[in-house]
Structure formats: structure tokens, C-alpha cells
Amino acid sequence: MLKKLERYFNFFVETLSMSLLIMMTLIVSWVVFSRYFLHKTPAWGEEASLLCMVWFGFLSMAIGVRDNLHLSITILDQYLSDKTKNNLNWISRVLILGFALFMIKEGIRMSQVATGNYMPGLKLNSAFLYAVIPISGVAMIYYIISASISEIKRKEVTR
């Protein structure tokens, strides 16, 4: 059941991220084409590409947490014991979890503050731009918990 949920969740996040990247590329291409060949820039182009870029960036950050692609200093790994490396790995997870909780809390606050503003080109509430921050935080928490459960199960099997 957990594997099926994880597969659907991964599919949703990855598909949405890829779609946003494609949309951003198409929008920027259209804006450049229309600016230089049609001599008219669409009013919505810059805001739409910004929206896609922000959503893509934050969702990609969650995927990076899932795939353990965050920056780390690995030069010391050859000098540390396995137990110390494992402890540092758990500390890293706790810190990422704390950052994800911060993203949720502050992302909701930012969205609430932005509800009074609109993006003029898209005629869309600015809160939509910031809504990805808590969504990404939830995805990061899901991926951290999922990785932790998998590691605990893997250790129980090896014992």
C-alpha cells in the first residue's frame, strides 16, 4: 500500500514539475518570438513564466530531497565511522524536516499576505504564486518520512 502511494505521489510531483518546465519553455519562446517578430509582447508572458519557474523550482527541491541530492560535505566521509555517518544522516534529515516545517508555516503566511494582490497580466491572485511553498514543504516531509521508514525497515531486515 505504501509503495503504491509513493508511486502515485512521485508520478504526480514529477509530472507536474516536467509540465511546468515545458510550459515555461514554451511561454518564454512565445514571448521572444512575439517580441522580435510580431513586435508585440504579451502582457501575461513574464508573469506566467515566473509562476512556472517558481513552482518548478520548489517542486524540484522536494524531488531533490527524495533523491538525496542536497549539498553535503563528503570529504570527511572517508574518515568517519559508519555509525557517525549514520548519525549525521539522521541529523540532516531532522534539519531538512525542520526547514520543511518552516516552509509550510511561512508559506501559508506569505500566501495569506498576498491574497490582497493580483498579478495584473494573468489576473490571478498572487497567493497562488506562494502556494507552492507549503505544498513543497509537505512533499519534503513526505519524502523524509518515507526515506526514514525505508531505512528503518532495511536495518530490521539486516539484523
Question: Which descriptors would you attach to this protein?
Answer:
DctQ, 159 residues, 2 strands, mainly alpha, 77% helix, two-stranded antiparallel sheet, 3% strand, transmembrane
Notes on the structure:
77% of the residues lie in helices and 3% in strands. The protein has 159 residues and is an all-alpha fold. It has one domain (1-158). It has a two-stranded antiparallel sheet. A hairpin with a 4-residue loop joins strand 1 (118-119) and strand 2 (124-125). The chain is elongated and about 65 Å long. The relative contact order is 0.12. It is found in: Cell inner membrane.
Beta-strand content bin: under 5%
- Average pLDDT works out at 90
SS class: mainly alpha
Q: Supply Rg.
A: 20 Å
Low-pLDDT runs: none
Helix content: over 70%
In spatial order, strands of the major sheet run 1-2
Tally of contiguous helical segments: 5
**Helix and strand succession?**
HHHEEHH
Q: Could you say which overall geometry the principal axes of the C-alpha atoms support?
A: elongated
Give the termini distance in whole angstroms. 24 Å
Tally of distinct domains? 1
**Total strand segments:** 2
Biggest pleated-sheet summary: 2 strands, antiparallel
